[in-house]
């Protein structure tokens, strides 16, 4: 039986990894494809992003309601994978703007719901196998971080060495593996059973949205930093063109280590204190990043960024889920939707601030947003429910 449980968990994480790689190959590439590949002005990126993200938010909400009501999740993951396949097939055959804004928006928008659905199922998987939810959240976050280490690097290597259109062909082949894993490894009757509601629903709702506000602020701070650092390093600091890639690799490597350490930190210090320390570390780290002048300083800053974001990535979702243990899928959808909205708003904010000042100012503003996240955390309910 232990061997069977281990196989089930590994199959689940492999399915999550494959779906994440698919998303990671496309999400950072679409803006590049629209501007560099199709020759349109950068504003078209916002049009695509708003349409795709809005569809993802809607899908996440609808799917979460179904999951919390006891619906089977197997078809929901299949719909997401099918949407991705549909979009990559269309763009492999007809790589045009109108394909992107029609089939691409629908397919990639719906496919992005898979991550939220899988994380919603993770709580049930943890309970079924006798694993603390915070620990299994860490496994899932490490899996998604690893997928993001591989996906973008593979995409831009293929685009550079073979061609932009080849990215969609290769993404389609990965999607076929995703569909195969979904069909053969995910149980047909898998659900995420909600626990009976406890306490005041109104109070729980208020606490849940305060937790989401905290996640929004710290995610926005990270998105502002993430979007502006490459141009800050190259254009304003004068580092070589490969420096942002090196920084990203260092950050992600440390991030994965931090994610695996999170359950131990929760057990030792408690979730609230760990989150507060992580948020204050983010404030300091972003200021360090804004002060980078040499390659060595960038190296240190990237490691610090990976440390705080790794802790936050694992703590954040457990924190939000802790305020809605009777509605885990809804809490998970709120968490992922909050991340998407913060990322969507970061783009225009970076452009406006950098146009008025510079990219260094964007990073300094991000530090202020992280400080505001700490304030939101302090005014939220002091007692955090126990995460199982």
UniProtKB/TrEMBL annotation:
<dbReference type="InterPro" id="IPR036259">
    <property type="entry name" value="MFS_trans_sf"/>
</dbReference>
<feature type="transmembrane region" description="Helical">
    <location>
        <begin position="165"/>
        <end position="186"/>
    </location>
</feature>
<feature type="transmembrane region" description="Helical">
    <location>
        <begin position="274"/>
        <end position="292"/>
    </location>
</feature>
<dbReference type="GO" id="GO:0005886">
    <property type="term" value="C:plasma membrane"/>
</dbReference>
<feature type="transmembrane region" description="Helical">
    <location>
        <begin position="298"/>
        <end position="320"/>
    </location>
</feature>
<protein>
    <submittedName>
        <fullName>MFS transporter, SET family, sugar efflux transporter</fullName>
    </submittedName>
</protein>
<dbReference type="InterPro" id="IPR020846">
    <property type="entry name" value="MFS_dom"/>
</dbReference>
<dbReference type="GO" id="GO:0022857">
    <property type="term" value="F:transmembrane transporter activity"/>
</dbReference>
<feature type="transmembrane region" description="Helical">
    <location>
        <begin position="332"/>
        <end position="355"/>
    </location>
</feature>
<feature type="transmembrane region" description="Helical">
    <location>
        <begin position="40"/>
        <end position="59"/>
    </location>
</feature>
<feature type="transmembrane region" description="Helical">
    <location>
        <begin position="71"/>
        <end position="94"/>
    </location>
</feature>
<keyword id="KW-0762">Sugar transport</keyword>
<feature type="domain" description="Major facilitator superfamily (MFS) profile">
    <location>
        <begin position="208"/>
        <end position="388"/>
    </location>
</feature>
<keyword id="KW-0472">Membrane</keyword>
<keyword id="KW-1133">Transmembrane helix</keyword>
<dbReference type="Pfam" id="PF07690">
    <property type="entry name" value="MFS_1"/>
</dbReference>
<dbReference type="InterPro" id="IPR011701">
    <property type="entry name" value="MFS"/>
</dbReference>
<feature type="transmembrane region" description="Helical">
    <location>
        <begin position="100"/>
        <end position="126"/>
    </location>
</feature>
<feature type="transmembrane region" description="Helical">
    <location>
        <begin position="361"/>
        <end position="379"/>
    </location>
</feature>
<keyword id="KW-0812">Transmembrane</keyword>
<feature type="transmembrane region" description="Helical">
    <location>
        <begin position="207"/>
        <end position="226"/>
    </location>
</feature>
<feature type="transmembrane region" description="Helical">
    <location>
        <begin position="138"/>
        <end position="159"/>
    </location>
</feature>
<feature type="transmembrane region" description="Helical">
    <location>
        <begin position="12"/>
        <end position="34"/>
    </location>
</feature>
<comment type="similarity">
    <text>Belongs to the major facilitator superfamily. Set transporter family.</text>
</comment>
<keyword id="KW-1003">Cell membrane</keyword>
<keyword id="KW-0813">Transport</keyword>
<feature type="transmembrane region" description="Helical">
    <location>
        <begin position="246"/>
        <end position="267"/>
    </location>
</feature>
């Amino acid at each position: 039986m232990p061997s069977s449980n281990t196989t089930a968990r590994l199959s689940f994480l492999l399915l999550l990894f494959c779906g994440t790689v698919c998303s990671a190959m496309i999400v950072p590439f679409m803006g590049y494809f629209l501007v560099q590949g199709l020759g349109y002005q950068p504003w078209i990126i916002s049009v695509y992003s708003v349409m795709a993200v809005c569809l993802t938010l809607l899908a996440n909400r609808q799917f979460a309601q179904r999951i919390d009501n006891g619906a089977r999740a197997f078809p929901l993951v299949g719909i997401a994978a099918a949407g991705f396949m549909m979009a990559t097939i269309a763009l492999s055959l007809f790589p045009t703007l109108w394909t992107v804004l029609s089939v691409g928006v629908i397919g990639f928008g719906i496919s992005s719901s898979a991550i939220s659905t899988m994380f919603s199922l993770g709580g049930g998987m943890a309970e079924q196998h006798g694993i603390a939810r915070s620990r299994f959240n860490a496994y899932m976050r490490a899996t998604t971080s690893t997928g993001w280490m591989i996906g973008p690097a593979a995409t831009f290597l293929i685009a550079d060495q073979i061609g932009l259109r080849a990215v969609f062909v290769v993404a389609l082949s990965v999607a076929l593996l995703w569909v195969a894993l979904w069909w053969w490894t995910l149980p047909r009757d898998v659900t995420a059973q909600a626990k009976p509601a406890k306490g005041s629903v109104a109070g729980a709702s208020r606490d849940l949205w305060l937790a989401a506000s905290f996640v929004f602020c710290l995610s926005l701070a990270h998105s502002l930093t993430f979007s502006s650092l490459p141009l800050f390093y190259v254009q304003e600091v004068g580092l070589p063109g490969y420096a942002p890639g090196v920084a990203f690799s260092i950050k992600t490597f440390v991030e994965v280590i931090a994610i695996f350490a999170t359950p131990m930190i929760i057990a030792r210090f408690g979730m609230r204190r760990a989150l507060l320390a992580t948020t204050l570390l983010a404030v300091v780290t972003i200021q360090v990043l804004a002060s980078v002048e040499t390659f060595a300083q960038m190296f240190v800053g990237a490691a610090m960024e990976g440390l705080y974001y790794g802790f936050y990535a694992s703590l954040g979702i457990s924190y939000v889920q802790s305020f809605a243990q009777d509605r885990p899928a809804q809490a998970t959808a709120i968490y992922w939707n909050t991340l998407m909205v913060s990322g969507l708003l970061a783009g225009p904010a970076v452009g406006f601030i950098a146009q008025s000042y510079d990219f260094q100012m964007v990073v300094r503003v991000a530090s202020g947003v992280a400080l505001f996240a700490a304030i939101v955390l302090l005014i939220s309910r002091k007692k955090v429910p126990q995460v199982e």
